[in-house]
Design goal:
By secondary structure, the protein is of the alpha/beta class. Helices cover 44% and strands 15% of the residues.
Amino acid sequence: MKEHIEVSLTGHVATVTIDRPPHNHVNAALIGALADTLEELDRDDRCRAIVLATAGRVFCGGADLSGDKPLVTDSGEAETPILYRNAVRLFATRKPIVAAVQGAAVGAGLGLALVADFRVAVPEARFSANFVSLGFHAGFGISHTLPRVIGGQKASLMLLTGRRVKAEDALAWGLVDELVPAGRLREAAGALAGEIAAAAPLGVEETRATLRGDLAAAVEQQTRHERIVQDRLMATADFREGIRAVAERRPGNFVRG
């Protein structure tokens, strides 16, 4: 999956771009490659801050749930434990991250955006934790990271309804830190990362570590719980119906079973 990740360095700011058309769907291999990239940047003293971006119109459409066996690797093994181990690696990296969100950040795509310390978005961006619409449970540590950013009440609203949150509301809730025109997204994200990179790097990293505390460990613990519930729900008729409904672009007809 390294071929889907591009890295460039301007001054002390690295831009990491995921380009996996058409919707930048994530899987265990892609998140593993991203974790490798961020860990490499941790070891590169030239890099002091990171812009996390994606190509195309969609920031990230989430995990690929198409096919008869969603969330299964090519070898037939379950993707989820590998995906979540790699997600924890993202949260464990040391350099500050600014996400540039140009479109929908859905499901695991929202989880990816929450890896960042800050999110700069365009007015067209949308944020959705749509797991319940799939007959499913939140993953990628979102049940921990989303309340941490926007508070328990707003997080409950997103997680229990699956609604899409507009960029303007996301800004008011604190899910987005800056809202800029589409033509200025990379520039604005780079400017914020550059402001961070202009400060003393050791001081920045230590302050970030203090602010984040045991975030990586908390995400690891939370993904264990999320996976147990997800495994149980994947065996239900409601989950199968949710996958069909999303593929057919219609509301789900759930039966509590």
